[in-house]
Amino acid sequence: MYDWLNALPKAELHLHLEGSLEPELLFALAERNKIALPWPDVGALRGAYAFNNLQEFLDLYYRGADVLRSEQDFYDLTWAYLLKCQAQNVIHTEPFFDPQTHTERGIPFEVVLRGIKQALVDGEKQLGISHALILSFLRHLSEEQAFDTLQQALPFRDAFVAVGLDSSELGHPPSKFQRVFAKARSEGLLCVAHAGEEGPPEYIWQALDLLKVQRIDHGVRAIEDERLMQRIIDEQIPLTVCPLSNIKLRVFADMRQHNILEMLERGVKVTVNSDDPAYFGGYVSENFAALHEGLGMTQEQAGRLAQNSLEARLA
Ligand code: HPA
Ligand code: ZN
After folding, report:
1. Which domains occur in the chain, in start order?
2. Which of 16, 102, 210, 309 could serve as 11's disulfide partner, Cβ 3.0–4.6 Å?
């Protein structure tokens, strides 16, 4: 790894805590919770990390999250991620958590939130890493289920700053959640949404106009729509781009095809993030390194990308 990449102070703005569950911790939690796993060992699980699209990844991601049962499990998951942040000079993080992945399995909302939040608070005190937590709705579930989740979350309103939208994009446009996001905004919450990862530019327009998001997560397909490009440049709407994720999920055939530096040079406020680092081969610095190796990103460009991440924070 390059020391100059670790040395850059940066913020991570697109990270699914459940996607930071490394195979070693996954096996340890399975043992702690007496859960039988379908993989004989860590190596076999890592070997299963080959995906043709977003859905194939999500199937494994939800399966892996099943080992998370107790408040301590969620604490340990979050703490392990924060130690990676410390090692890579990530000074601020805005992680997502997916409550429905857990409440659907009978884990109480407050068990999930308490474990995560306690680790984030300890990370702030002991590691000096500030945070803003984002509650993300699963878009393959119904509008009613999202409303239900928001209702469960409101007693803990002060623990998070925004709502997000993730999971299977195609067939689940932002418009499906227009009313839930309006309710969240009425409670003073900010909004972000995954859009334009596998879905068309139209989904990015909807995220902006219907959900009134502050940022677009991924958004790489914006480049297919010149009018949309002009808008995100004019309004400086940040895109939280995840290069290694995009290659692992075949959004681009290889890193040399990735459009993040083209966007950067056109004046788009793009940032570099890890998405699901345990599954996609690395944390923020590994994503920067992949851009250096695959796209020839210069130190000057890395500096601007890191600066964008600090400016695109919600909190
Ligand atoms: N896209 C959509 N949903 C997700 C992702 C992603 O990259 N990672 C975890 N949930
Ligand atoms: Zn994501």
Report:
1. 2-311 (3.20.20.140)
2. 309
Cβ 221 under 6 angstroms from ligand 1: no
The fraction of the chain above a pLDDT of 70, given in percent, is 100
Tell me the C-alpha distance between 197 and 212, whole Å.
18
Pairing mode of beta strands 90-93, 10-12: parallel
Neighbours of ion ligand 2 (CB under 5 A): 275
pLDDT beyond 90 at 54: yes
Rounded to the nearest angstrom, the distance between the alpha carbon of 309 and the centre of ligand 2 is 16
CA of 187 to the centre of ligand 2 (A): 24
Q: What burial letters (b/e) apply to 147-168, b meaning 16+ CB within 10 Å?
A: bebbebbeeeeebbbbbbbbbb
CA–centroid distance, residue 128 to ligand 2 (Å): 25
The mean predicted confidence, pLDDT, of the chain is: 98
Residue 16 CA, closest ligand 1 atom number: 9
Q: What does the pLDDT read at residue 72? A: 99
Confidence category of residue 2, pLDDT binned at 50, 70, 90: confident
Ligand nearest to the CA of 165: 1
